[in-house]
């Protein structure tokens, strides 16, 4: 939940930076048949599109900053790095997180700024939130199926454009060739080739049907014959398996508690912020029709 909030906030923040950079500049940013589109025109359009939302966010962040300062609340680099590590894991690694951030117009550094704000909110409001055993039990009863561990396979692959290339790879593997090295040499899947063809763990419905059927039928350390999908021909090596397991309250308790805490924190934050806004002297000329 938090990662979605951070990135959503970051999209707005990125827009804010662009708006600020654009303000007051008259040089053109584009032209159509000689008709120039100026930075001022671009700024006006962006201001109309999300200027109010951006400014509201900046005001809210300043309130959080000032309230944290009153309470002597700080956020250490270690706390920020710990949060970033969680999101790297959830996205499948640092590179995958970077890609997701880039697609949202963000960087890791801008994400760290949003994480810092969020941790301050947790420290300001969190101490007043109590998650009861009854709430945890209710959530578990209503979401038991989704909390369980589905069967997963961990695998690597070598993807080739033709069956002949796949059979050539298969022959080299039979002669004792190293799977990872052959993936780097042959695989057309550039996203995994440099990592020796590693795909990580996946569950049902995440891969092409023929690939998935073959992988789930294999044993650990098995290497498949060429498997054809719409992407080409795969040589699959299964490197691990996780059996399906039903959720238990004991194993799910901490995860549920964190989810409920985040839900309540977001709900409480809205109320908390409204009260703080009412107590602050806030002058917003944009909402009053200013430029």
TrEMBL record:
Enzyme class: isomerase
Record's GO cellular component terms: plasma membrane
Alphabetical list of InterPro entries matching this protein: Foldase_PrsA, PPIase_dom_sf, PPIase_PpiC, PPIase_PpiC_CS, PrsA_foldase, Trigger_fact/SurA_dom_sf
PROSITE patterns cross-referenced by the UniProt entry: PPIC_PPIASE_1, PPIC_PPIASE_2
Tagged with keyword Protein transport: no
Chain ranges of the PpiC domain: 150-240
Membrane association type: Lipid-anchor
Gene3D superfamilies (UniProt xref): 3.10.50.40, Porin chaperone SurA, peptide-binding domain
PANTHER family from the UniProt entry: FOLDASE PROTEIN PRSA, PEPTIDYLPROLYL ISOMERASE
Function per UniProt: Plays a major role in protein secretion by helping the post-translocational extracellular folding of several secreted proteins.
Protein name per UniProt: Foldase protein PrsA
Organism: Planococcus koreensis
Gene of this entry: prsA
